[in-house]
Amino acid sequence: MAAPSKETTPIVVGTQAPDFTLPDHDKKDWKLADHVGKKPVVLFFYPLDWSPTCTKENACFTQDLSKFSKYAEVAAISIDSVWSHKAWREKMGLKHTLLADMHRTVTKAYGLFHPGANISQRATVVIAKDGKVAWVKVEPDITKERNYSEVEEQLKKLG
Questions:
Q1: What is the dihedral of CA 133, 63, 22, 55, to 10 degrees?
Q2: pLDDT of residue 66
């Protein structure tokens, strides 16, 4: 049996978060380096726009955005296109940033690639102000929503 690849092995707490630039829902470059150092960053990786769990989850992100944004910069990442993000964001009334990782480079760099489905895992990565990974949680069942209060607790710890 082959060893798990780096692409599918979640990034380790305490390591430097890989820098990246991805287009957001408005085709503007979003650079991690522009946010690190100012406050923590939360990256919500999710499988697909328009799917039932991701739709419900992103509606919750927007509804509870202030719970997270008071502590950190928030961005959600999926493998969908900028155009899908834009249409979905408008249809859903989403307020948070959606980043398009169509080539899966960030998903793979963070070890969150789900090769069987060619999508990302449902995972949360909290990056401290110093640019190091402070917390990682991959949901064991990709069809289930993440625990938002768990994320908020992690952010409170970073103060």
A1: 110
A2: 80
- Domain annotation covers residue 11: no
CB 65 within 8 A of CB 74: yes
Averaged over 96-107, what is the pLDDT? 97
Residue 24 forms part of a structural domain: no
Angle between helices 52-63 and 82-92 (to 10 degrees): 60
Domain of 103, in residue numbers:
29-158
- Answer yes or no: are the C-beta atoms of 144 and 51 closer than 8 Å: no
**Per-residue b or e along 44-75, where b marks 16 or more CB atoms closer than 10 Å to that residue's CB:** bbbbbbebebbbebbeebeeeeebbbebbbbb
Q: Which of 36, 54, 99, 126 is catalytic?
A: 54
Helix (H) or strand (E) segment spanning residue 88: helix 82-92
DSSP per residue over 13-33, as a string?
A: TTSBPPP-EEEBTTS-EEEGG
Q: Determine contact, residues 108/79, Cβ cutoff 8 Å.
A: no
**Which amino acid, 134?**
A
Q: Specify whether 60 is catalytic.
A: no
pLDDT at 17 over 60: yes
| Total of domains in the chain | 1
pTM beyond 0.70, yes or no: yes
